[in-house]
């Protein structure tokens, strides 16, 4: 995996190139409404499971009703938060875990998306453990 801070995730939406939309349509058609519902419900459950494992006394959590969640340290200034996000993201990439680094209201977060149906509880536990322990390096 690349070690720099780019990943191309913000470059476009699925279906913005004419032939790409065919793959999306075929996939959704194959799944059907019931299949799509099962995938979404599983993604939401993975996010809820992960959210319960996060140390909310030290990490601020932003999440909605779906399968996205973003976290940032509660007691860090913006400069320290940026350093934490960059360092932690690199450490996660070394473990083959990919989180994006969005900025919300001038503050860096790490954002996880739990849409992959092959994400297992052991992956979620590892991610939560790494994120919870990531603050220790900056507590010095």
Describe this structure in words.
The chain is an alpha+beta fold and 140 residues long. It is 46% helix and 14% strand. It contains three helices and five strands, in the order H-E-E-H-E-E-E-H. The chain has helices at 20-53, 78-94, 121-133, and strands at residues 59-63, 68-73, 103-104, 107-108, 110-113. The strands form two sheets. Strands 1-2-5 form a three-stranded antiparallel beta sheet. A two-stranded antiparallel ribbon has the order 3-4. Helix 1 packs across helix 3. It starts with 19 loop residues before the first helix and ends in a 7-residue tail after the last helix. The relative contact order is 0.15. The mean pLDDT is 89.
| Largest sheet entry | 3 strands, antiparallel
Count of separate DSSP helical elements: 3
Mean pLDDT reading: 89
- How far apart are the termini? 30 Å
Beta content comes to 5-15%
The coarse overall form would be elongated
**Secondary structure tally: strands:** 5
Helix and strand composition category: alpha+beta
Spans of at least 5 consecutive residues whose pLDDT stays below 50 are: none
Using only C-alpha atoms, the radius of gyration works out to: 16 Å
Helix/strand order, N-terminal first: HEEHEEEH
With strands numbered from the N-terminus, the spatial order across the biggest sheet is 1-2-5
Which descriptors would you attach to this protein?
140 residues, two-stranded antiparallel ribbon
List the helices and strands and how they pair.
Layout (H helix, E strand, L loop, with lengths): L19 H34 L5 E5 L4 E6 L4 H17 L8 E2 L2 E2 L1 E4 L7 H13 L7
Antiparallel strand pairs: 1-2, 2-5, 3-4
